[in-house]
Specification:
By secondary structure, the protein is of the alpha/beta class. The protein is about 50% helix and about 10% strand. Strand 3 (about 75-80) and strand 4 form a beta hairpin. The longest helix has 20 residues, at about 100-120.
Length: about 220
């Protein structure tokens, strides 16, 4: 059954484009997922974890999912109000495995990319690692993390990106309260990037936060 969109959110128009219906990755996607349901769930996860109300979220008029043959996994492009998520059907074929595992991975990737449709990025000046980390933070909190992710794998820097930064953000959320990452995202709406944002959020400088986080992870291993 398709989810019923919450009236609290402004939903974009969702559509699908498939250049090659014969591709086996397309067959797999359509067998495992209803495109409208999958995209709606990705929108709901994104808005729920990034915003406390529709008034604070950007209005995205449309999101097009493009299932096509390409290198890599996925990427998002478009203007402020009209987005395209390109998902590699070659990756779907390469992923393989049990149907539920493949469905889980596709939903995780779609949710990650949907975050890029809605998140703020400090007028384009936000470090790329933080942009990707916030997207994976939402994926993590939507219970869509893949099995190989681990909070015990700590990189050399806080903005290494993806799940590494996502677990750092998750630690901040647990330490400083639910909604911390929402606030972080909101602070990047109308200003350029400055790491002082972290001190505004927590009262501690970013370098100190990272040092505490790494120390906690080292002691937990």
């Amino acid at each position: 059954m398709a989810p019923t969109p919450s009236p609290a959110w402004v939903y974009p128009t969702l559509s699908l484009r498939i250049p090659d219906l014969a591709h086996p990755g397309v067959h797999t996607f359509l067998q495992l997922l209803d495109p409208h349901t999958a995209l709606t769930l990705a929108v709901e996860a994104t808005l729920t974890h990034l915003y406390d109300s529709s008034a604070n979220a950007p209005v995205v008029g449309s999101v097009v999912l493009v299932l096509r043959s390409m290198d890599g996994v996925a990427h998002t492009t478009g203007s402020e109000t009209h987005k395209e998520i390109h998902l590699s059907v070659d990756y779907i074929v390469k992923k393989g495995g049990p149907a539920e595992a493949v469905r889980h991975e596709i939903m995780g990737v779609l949710t990650h990319e949907m975050v890029h449709c809605f998140q703020y990025n400090a007028r384009g000046t936000c470090p790329g690692g933080l942009v990707e980390g916030i997207a994976d933070f939402v994926r993590l909190h939507a219970d869509l993390a893949p099995p190989h992710w681990s909070p015990d794998s700590v990189p050399d820097k806080w903005d290494a990106g993806y799940e590494h930064t996502a677990y750092f953000l998750d630690w901040l959320e647990n330490r400083y309260g639910q909604g911390t990452v929402q606030e972080l995202n909101g602070l990047m709406k109308d200003r350029e990037w400055d790491e002082q944002i972290f001190k505004e959020l927590t009262g501690r400088k970013l370098g100190k936060l990272w040092k505490i986080y790494v120390g906690n992870r080292d002691s937990a291993v």
